[in-house]
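Supplementary Note 2. Why include the ligand at all?

Several targets in our set were suspected to adopt different conformations when bound, so apo predictions alone were not considered sufficient. For every target with a known small-molecule partner we therefore ran a joint prediction. The input for manganese (II) ion is given below.
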Amino acid sequence: MNLLEHEAKSLLSTYRVTVPRGSILSPLDTPPPAPIVLKSQVHTGGRGKAGGVRVVRAGEDATAVAEELFGLAIKGERPSVVLAEEVLNIAHEYYFSVVVNRADGCIDIIAHHEGGVEVETQHDFKRWSVQYSKWRPEAERIGQELADYYSLPTKTFALQDLVENLLHCFAKEDVTLLEINPLVITSEGGLVAGDCKMTLDDDALYRHKDRVVSESPANTNFVTLDTSGSVATIANGAGLAMATVDAVKSAGLSPANFLDVGGGATVASMVASFRQIAAFPQVSAIIINIFGGIVRCDEVARAIIAAREQVEGLPELYIRLTGTNSDIAETLLKEVGLTLYPTLDTCIEEVCHA
Ligand code: GDP
Ligand code: MN
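The joint prediction is reproduced in token form.
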């Protein structure tokens, strides 16, 4: 599973890695005043070159830039949230990453003294390999050598701390790729993770159930399962969401995502969900499985109807809504040509026969 930049950065900050101060914007939110950096939160890299990272100078209109970013698809994906961050005064950009080396069963650390958006054109990367069981005693030495390699002798202690904190995060969180590009040295002398890409080992997700549900505020918790999956799912409550994914899979279909919209199946959360799903190229059906207990079914139906009008190119909806006011919900949905299915199984059968 690939984390979004803001998810990766908030995880990093819990390991005492310095990240820029920032906040998350949903489509209707007003950004903080300029100067500010606005960054499209999509899963692909190369956002800088695609126009997905925008430094908004004092006096410029951050709201207009945010709107542009929400409308900009990068490699087919539009963001459902935008990250607003303090502007860094970049003195230099370095490259730093940690990856699983499957061939040798160890961890590789890879660095380059010239990071940033052109890093692919670089050669002669510096590389260290460490055993999983031995990263802790090695961190100090690697930090020292990294300071030499980056020609940052005054930052030796800071780089030793950074290496230790990143390896700790890497091992503890079952990370398979952790890339910081750029690792920024600011004109004030700070060492800051300017960007972060993180891939987590899907087979170890069960060890981190709490983590997955804590991150993405706009879209309570969206987990990409398979970007080539054909069926997207939306449910309320983690248990129901998991059961929905399982039922889709048992029927021989490929679920694209797991999504728990929580108690608040609001217009905003539905729009955010639909936006994320619309970015998946192969999805041909969305199954919505919601139990209207705290939230009433008619409210959910209204949210679905309103959100559907705001997102282009939405796949077919298959809706199961039970609970309070489900009869009103059925009437509302029928008015706009949507069917309310009585059970999850009937939804799935319809998808199979579509
Ligand atoms: P990526 O292209 O998807 O990897 O996105 P990044 O987050 O790495 O941003 C791309 C580039 O934008 C960086 O290499 C920086 O040159 C620039 N950039 C990002 N944040 C800032 C910032 O706070 N200040 C300045 N001056 N440039 C930034
Ligand atoms: Mn980057």
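The mean pLDDT is 91. Residues 37, 39, 45-48, 53, 55, 87-88, 90, 93, 116-117, 181-182, 194-195 surround guanosine-5'-diphosphate (ligand 1) (CB under 6 Å). Comparable summaries for the other entries are listed in the accompanying table.
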